[in-house]
Amino acid sequence: MDRRRFALTAVSVAVLSGCGGGGSGGGGFAFPPVGTPPAPAPGDPPAPMPPAPAPQPPAPPAPNPPAPAPGPELATPTSLPASTILTQSIANHDNDAAVGPGQANFWDLMPDFSIGNGWNDQFAGSGVGAGSGALALSVKVGSLSQGFNNDQRFNELTALGPEMTAADGLKIVSITTDPQFQSNGVAAFLHAVPDARLQQPLDLRQAVGRVNVQWTGKWGTLRGNFVGSGNGGIGDPEPAFMQVVLRDLSGGLLRTLFRIDANGPFGTWGSVRISEFAGQVVVLSFEQCNRGQGTSIEMVSVDDDVRSLIVNGDFSSGLSGWTVSPARSAQNIRSGIRTLRGLEVQRTFYAQPSQPWGRMTDTFHNPTASSITAKATYTSFLGSYGAGVIYPPAGAPQKALAVWDGLGKGRDAGFVFGAADHVDYASASALNSSDGSNVVTVDFDITVPAGGTVTLVNFLILTGTNTWIGAASTAARATDVDAQAGAIAANFRADLIYQRGLTQLQLDTLKNF
Fold first, then answer.
1. Is CATH 2.60.40 the right assignment for the domain spanning 172-324?
2. What string of DSSP letters covers 404-462?
3. Per-residue pLDDT tens for 241-296?
4. Domain at 74-166+331-508: CATH code
């Protein structure tokens, strides 16, 4: 068994400022005043004209001032709703199940603001509380330690910008031929975001007889720790549902044809009669709000007694004839404040869909009149349960860890923690062995001055890869994780994508990068 514990010392960099100066002198003499030249005497030849000045090239334009150094796109207010499951747009490469088309994993926030199992058992986050999740936080002052409370409520969470769009990899509705998400050749897939809508107007003004709506497909399993009446959701659950409704042309709800939420299903999935709306124009709307997994819609038909009233109901022409809600979502989620051993602690999780990493940012504010010295510990529970092959990536040997499952049950993962003070882990000694540990801990020693703040940033990496496939021994490496870990460790300050969504205070008080 490969057990490692290393200690890193903080390195202070002194920035030296130089100043220059000039000299001054006195003495010399004054030039005589310039008088009027005497008039020419009679008979003298006229004075020659002074030579014309030589032509001068035009003066070069004044140089433009240097452009200011670019800065990161900082956190901004947004009116978009929060969500506690944030889906990646990174494809899976292991032939295992995905969250949605082109989406291998998700980030699952738990009520203590740790990260749940990552979808493919990268972390032991299927439960709530001790022994589950990644980056669970505790603070120790003196001999007493206190964990970040496992009691976050959904209405305490704050969504922040920058708002994510399709340019950031955000998916709202996708057309897919992936067999996991369709059974008739092609489907429209509603991704699990706060407001995904797939809509088509139905002109029923000439409808004859009975009007029937039919569709096939499948909704995903309800997931998340802030929904329903479960942990953290009592009295203020996160909205999470899938529904099929009729709306008027201004968006008003006319009738709910089907709905499933934490209370179970309402109505009949797949077949509804809507004859009472004959003579009107209505909008058929398939709608997804969170739930963790999305919904596939196939083979939509709307018919009266003589004709079809739907366009492209089999999606063979993509989304032609359909409209999709605007692609915009918040994936920068801030917790409520908890006081841990005298420090006011607030956690913020950020994930850009197109990136294989998520970033946890913790601020430690000291409201007292004296400095506080503390140990901040991050504990992560691996889904490999002792079979994880854990090692420091070559590109970030004392700033990161890579993990792959030696039993092949879960996808690869990684941690990037920067300048930590202690890191503890135990790798499995051989393939298909469980003699390691499923716990990784990272410690930071911090001193927060009176009235001051210290910020720590930790990155998690989730890829769509499974290094166990084809591995001959524990010497195999999770190359995608290694490359991303090295890039973050080396370029956090230079590549602004890693700072996107932070606040200026967090950047100004950041300790470990």
1. no
2. EETTSSS--EEEE-SS-SEEEEEE-SSTT---S-SEEEEEEEEEE-TT-EEEEEEEEEE
3. 999 999 999 999 999 999 999 999 999 999 999 999 999 999 999 999 999 999 99
4. 2.70.98
